[in-house]
Amino acid sequence: MTPAAGRSFGPVAFVSRRTGGSNGRVIRKHKTEVEFDGEQHDESQYDVTRDRWLEAQGWTVVRFWNTEVLGHLTMVLNTVAGQCYSSRNA
Which of 56, 67, 5 lies closest to 34, judged by CA? Predict the structure, then answer.
């Protein structure tokens, strides 16, 4: 688990579960996948393919760079909350 994922899991953990093998969280109620990425994910074809598949299944994927989580956690949490609110009212 990256430091960014560990830091954000506390506030997000009560409504989500960890995804297998990734630094992400799934918020099932809102069909939202939240990913915390480091530099190794820059232009990752695997991530693009996975995101497209999830979106085809009706999920929304929200990605944050680790630096965003570590430096702007409130913004990250507000973005996740906004996405969940939007999905609830869709």
Answer: 5
- Give the model confidence (pLDDT) of 48-66 as tens digits: 898 899 899 999 998 888 8
For 19, the 3-state DSSP assignment is coil
Instruction: Identify the sign of the CA torsion 48, 37, 71, 59.
Output: positive
pLDDT of 9 > 80? The answer is no
Tokens 């799934």 found at: 26
The pTM of the full predicted model, rounded to 2 decimals, is: 0.70
Q: Which DSSP string do the residues of 22-61 spell out, in sequence order?
A: SSEEEEGGGTEEEEEE-GGGTT-HHHHHHHHHHHHTT-EE
Task: Map tokens 């990256």 to a residue.
Answer: 2
Q: What are phi and psi of 29, to 5 degrees?
A: -55, -30
